[in-house]
Structure formats: C-alpha cells, structure tokens
C-alpha cells in the first residue's frame, strides 16, 4: 500500500496514534491496578495507593483465596458446567445446523421459522422459571446446562459453515451409495473442526462468565459456580465464617476480605485472559461468520 | 366438453399434489437420519422456548399453585392495569428507557469510531497488539467488571485519590444516583466497544485499496477518504447493527444493573427486568411478574419492527428481513 500523506494528514495520523494510546492505557489501567493491588497490603493500598515499597507487598491474598473453599469449589463447578454445557450445545447445534444445510430437506423452512421465532419472542423470566420448577430441575445442574443449550445463533453459524463446504464431496459420496449417517459422520464432521471449536469456545466462555441462571435456579451454595461466589465476595461483601481459618478480630477480617477481593479477581479472570490471545482468531471468526448470516 | 376438461384438469392437479406428497414421504423415509439429527434441537426448543411462550397466559390469570397455569382463573388485564397505574410505573419505565437510549447514543458510535481509528494504523503488528488489548475486557465476566468498579471507584479508591487532590470530598460513584447511568454506560463501553468493533474492522479490511490510491491521486485528504470511502463501505453493517440495537432497547441486560444496584441508587437503577425479578420471582407474584415481562417484550417487538421498516427506507431496501 503506497499511500502518501499530506502534512495535515500526518498531523491527523499522529493525533490518531496518540488517542489510541490513551484508549489502550484506559483499558489496561484497571487491569494493572487490580493486578498490583492483589499483591499489596490492604492498608497500604488504601492509605498510599500503589507503592513500590517492597514492604507493602504480600501474597497473603492469594494464600487466603486459594484456601477459601467456596472459591475452589466454584472453580470446579464452573469448569463442570461450562464443559458440559459446551458439549451439549455443540452436539445439538451442529446436528441441527447440518440437517438445515441440506437444501432439499423437506420441512426445512418450517424448522427454520420454528428456530428464528425464538430470537424475537420469549416467554420471559417467570414462565421459564415455573417450567424449570415443574420439571423438577430446580437446584440441579440440569437447570444450568440444558435450557440454554439450543442457541439459534449457533445453529445458523453451523448451517452457514456446512453450506460453505464443497457440494461435490457429499454428491460424490451419495453416488457411491453412502447413507446420510456416513456422510454426516465421515465427511461433514471431520471437516467441521473449526466451527465445532468456535462454538465450543463461545459456549464455554459464556457459561463461565454467567451468573444469572445459577442465581435463580440454584439455592444450594455447594452447587454455585465461580461467578456467584465472586458476587457474594466482591459485591455483597459477604465473608462466610468458614473463610476464617484461625481466630481473628473483625477489623482483621474486613482487611482480609478487602485483599481477597483483588486476589479473587485476578485468580478468576486470569485463565480466560491468558487463554484468549491464543484463540483470538477463532473468536473473531465466530463474530464474522455470524455477521454474514 | 368443457366440464370434462375441467374434471380432467382437476384430477391431474390432484395427482400431482398426491405425487408431491408421496415423494415428500419417501424423502423423509429415505433421509430419516437428517430428521433424527435435527430432533434434539427441535424438542429442546419446543420445551424451553415455546412452552414458556404459552406460559405467558399466566399474565392474564390469577396464578395459584394448587390450580396450575391451566386451571387458574382468567383475570384479563388486571395485572397490566395494576402495573401501569402503580406509582412505580413511570419511574421504572423511564429508567429502563433512559439507561438504554443513553447507552445506545454513547455506546453505538464507539466501536465504529474505534474501527476507523484502527484502520489508519498501517503497521500490522501494532494494529494486532492494540486489537488484542481492546478485545480483552470482553472476556471478563460482568461480576468481575462490577466488582472492579466497586474497588476502583470506592471513596478510597484510586480514582477518588486523584479527585481528592483537587477537591475536598470524594465522589460516591457507586451509591450516588447521579452517577449510576454514567458509570453503567462508560463501563459498558470500556468492556464492549473493542469487541463490537470487530465487524466494522473486518468490513473496512474489505475496502479495495485501489480506491484509496485513486482518491489520493484525485487529491482527497485522509478525512475525505474516510468520509467518502470508509463510511459508505461500512454503512450496511452499521444499519443492521443499529436495527438490532434499537430492537434490543427494552431488552437491556438484567445482569449488570442488578449487580450495580444499591439501596441508595434504586431511584435510577430499578429497571423493568430487575423489577420483574424482585416482584415476580423473589416475592412470588408470578402473574404480576409475567405481565410486566410481557409488557416489555411487546414494546421490544414494536421497536424492532419500527426500526426495521425505517432502516429499509434509508438503506436501499436492506433490512433484517
């Protein structure tokens, strides 16, 4: 690209770089602040702010948070919910998407409309809640991993993907007498690893970061995912008795709660933030395939 | 003669219709695996999407557990009237509307501007790095974002440290109703603008570079190139996103507002979804909650249809549907 810039263009470009720099800083500032804060004595952080005095640093917050039972349990629960949810979503949506990608499928339009309507109309919170309750799914993992498993968006994404596969492949297989099963499992699925990956990533991240369904459907705190534990820790300022490992006075307790907040944010968001740059192109792909419809 | 012909034609017509029907049946028989593949999705959709839609009749009934949804008595628009005549109605409705309209006005252009700014960055490595950083907040959960807001904006937090350098009093961002909307919307932009810019960046990447060269030769400045090449290129994408955004105005997320609610800021932070949750679910006024929820859905649908028809007019016939 050989675009020459005039003088005013260059000034604009410089301003542009400067503004982007400011934007990047404002994105990073909260993250870096919390990261540094998680290693600092809470009293030092409140009084002095971020300091570079080595005496103000401690790993107490991490020691506390990693031995805090609800957090570790929340981690395991979230991992289970997210994994199970992504597997179910991927299986259900890939299968439906493949079926809808077959052009001469009788009833294709009917199925499409059946799915599309749900994008614009919904029963709302209360009827859904009552349904889950009547199905006996309250306070079970099922309420988290099943109702949201059908995602119209995912179905459309996988349909688009399968439509993009060369038609010759399936035609050739059909001429050779392959059944629909063979075509689906032996031809379509092996070729669809990228879309499976994209859908699974989205489902996993979405479930990992969600708290709403768990809040309304799960009473038992043993079943709570990480986000609900974080909510009580960060936002409701609830410190459960089991958190105190040895006898401490109240002041000490609230100090601990403060330092645990920083550490818990780092511990809880680090896995995704570290992982995401490696998968970034897949996430981007998901957005772009979706926008093409 | 004419009659006979007509009968014959009718027969023929019937035949072909039966033929089509028959061939459909054989198609389904021959391709039953395709139907088995789509069945799980269909069944789950019917159970978890359509049954609740039917459950909406709850809004017109006096729900009692003993009688169930079907057996409960019809009360017509009782609960809608109750909601619309309650003193809370105006406040909650306007809170919902303001929060999302302000959010749309400020939040919608942000990713577009960001994409155009990024598009000027010519060095691929730098561009990629900036993108990676801009997208990162999208992967942080809403609970953590709100938790960070509480830490950063607390009276003793870093932002107030700077503020107290210039004034005597810290600002209570998280409890003062004055700041609720600004904090909500700006943090939303912080988290989402980068990620939302992806589709615009992709659209801009598709611009034929010869266009830039030609414009350059014709003496177009950078701003003119943006105005006459970049913006028209992404216009269809902008319109589609705008329709979706307007359709979602009343569908504003429950999750973040609920987390940011405190007793002191309820006068601005109570929106329809949080109200439905509290009154409908927590206080178990199921019928009332369902009525309020349905009210919201209907307004949403009207907005979406309106937005789409307006968009079709300005976008040369291209709308959502």
Would you kindly provide a written description of the structure presented here, covering whatever features stand out?
Chain A has 293 residues and is mainly alpha-helical. Chain A has a single domain (69-293), classed as Orthogonal Bundle (MetI-like fold). Chain A contains 14 helices and no strands. In chain A, helix 9 runs antiparallel to helix 10. The longest helix of chain A has 43 residues, at 250-292. Chain A is globular. Chain A starts with 6 loop residues before the first helix and ends with a helix. By secondary structure, chain B is mostly helical. Chain B is built from 16 helices and two strands. Chain B has helices spanning 2-30, 32-55, 68-71, 78-85, 88-107, 109-119, 124-135, 142-152, 158-166, 177-205, 209-217, 222-247, 254-260, 266-269, 272-282, 286-314; strands at 61-62, 73-74. Chain B has a two-stranded antiparallel ribbon with strand order 1-2. Chain B starts with a helix and ends in a 7-residue tail after the last helix. Mean pLDDT of chain B is 86; it is low at 1-7. Chains A and B meet through helix 1, helix 4, helix 5, helix 6 and helix 10 of A and helix 1, helix 2, helix 6, helix 7 and helix 8 of B.
Q: TL;DR of this structure?
A:
The complex is a heterodimer of chains A (293) and B (321). Chain A is mainly alpha-helical and 293 residues long.
* Strand/helix succession of chain B: HHEHEHHHHHHHHHHHHH
Count the strands of chain B?
Answer: 2
CATH topology of chain A: MetI-like fold
CATH class membership of the largest domain in chain B: Mainly Alpha
Helix/strand/pairing category of chain A: mainly alpha
Task: Report mean pLDDT of chain A, rounded to a whole number.
Answer: 86
């Amino acid at each position: 690209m050989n675009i020459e810039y005039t003088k005013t263009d260059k000034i604009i470009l410089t301003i542009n770089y400067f503004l982007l720099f400011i934007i990047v800083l404002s994105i990073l500032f909260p993250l870096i602040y919390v990261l540094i804060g998680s290693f600092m004595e809470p009293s030092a952080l409140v009084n002095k702010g971020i300091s570079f005095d080595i005496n103000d640093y401690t790993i107490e917050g991490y020691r506390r948070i990693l031995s805090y039972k609800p957090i570790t349990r929340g981690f395991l629960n979230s991992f289970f919910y997210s994994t199970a949810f992504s597997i179910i979503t991927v299986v259900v949506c890939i299968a439906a998407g493949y079926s809808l990608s077959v052009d001469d499928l009788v009833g294709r339009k009917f199925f499409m409309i059946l799915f599309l309507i749900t994008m614009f109309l919904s029963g709302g919170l209360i009827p859904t809640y009552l349904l889950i309750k009547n199905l006996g799914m309250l306070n079970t993992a099922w309420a988290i991993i099943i109702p949201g498993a059908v995602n119209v968006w995912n179905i459309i994404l996988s349909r688009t993907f399968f439509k993009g596969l060369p038609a010759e492949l399936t035609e050739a297989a059909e001429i050779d007498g392959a059944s629909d099963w063979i075509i689906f499992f032996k031809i379509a699925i092996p070729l669809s690893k990228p879309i499976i990956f994209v859908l699974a990533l989205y489902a996993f991240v979405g479930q990992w970061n969600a708290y709403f369904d768990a809040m309304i459907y799960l009473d038992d705190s043993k079943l709570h995912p990480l986000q609900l534990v974080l909510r009580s820790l960060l936002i409701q300022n609830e410190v459960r008795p089991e958190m105190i490992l040895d006898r401490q006075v109240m002041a000490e307790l609230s100090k601990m709660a403060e330092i645990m907040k920083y550490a818990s944010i780092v511990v809880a968001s680090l896995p995704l933030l570290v992982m995401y740059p490696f998968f970034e192109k897949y996430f981007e792909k998901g957005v772009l395939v979706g926008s093409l419809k | 003669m004419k009659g006979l012909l007509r009968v014959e034609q009718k027969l023929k017509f019937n035949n072909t219709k039966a033929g089509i029907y028959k061939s459909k049946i054989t198609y389904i028989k021959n391709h039953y695996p395709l139907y088995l593949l789509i069945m799980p999705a269909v069944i789950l959709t019917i159970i978890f999407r359509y049954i609740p839609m039917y459950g909406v009749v709850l809004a017109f009934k006096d729900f009692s557990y003993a009688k169930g949804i079907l057996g409960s008595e019809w009360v017509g628009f009782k609960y809608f009237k109750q909601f619309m005549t309650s003193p809370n109605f105006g406040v909650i409705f306007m809170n919902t509307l303001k929060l999302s309209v302000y959010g749309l006005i400020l939040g919608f252009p942000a990713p577009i501007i960001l994409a155009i700014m990024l598009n000027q960055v010519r060095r691929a490595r730098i561009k990629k790095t900036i993108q990676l950083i801009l997208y990162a907040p999208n992967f942080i959960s809403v609970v953590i974002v709100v938790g960070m807001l509480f830490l950063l904006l607390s009276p003793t937090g870093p932002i107030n440290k700077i503020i107290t350098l210039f004034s005597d009093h810290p600002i209570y961002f998280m409890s003062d109703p004055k700041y609720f909307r600004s904090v909500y919307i700006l943090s939303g932009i912080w988290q989402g603008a980068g990620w939302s810019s992806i589709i615009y960046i992709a659209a801009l990447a598709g611009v034929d570079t010869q266009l830039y060269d030609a414009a350059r030769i014709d003496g177009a400045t950078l701003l003119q190139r943006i105005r006459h090449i970049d913006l028209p290129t992404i216009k269809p994408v902008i319109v589609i996103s705008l329709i979706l955004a307007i359709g979602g105005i009343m569908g504003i997320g429950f999750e973040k507002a609920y987390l940011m609610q405190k007793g002191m800021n309820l006068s601005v932070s109570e929106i329809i979804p949080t109200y439905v949750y509290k009154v409908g679910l927590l206080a178990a006024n199921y019928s009332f909650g369902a009525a309020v929820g349905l009210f919201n859905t209907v307004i949403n649908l009207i907005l979406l249809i309106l937005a789409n028809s307006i968009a079709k007019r300005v976008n040369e016939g291209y709308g959502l549907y």
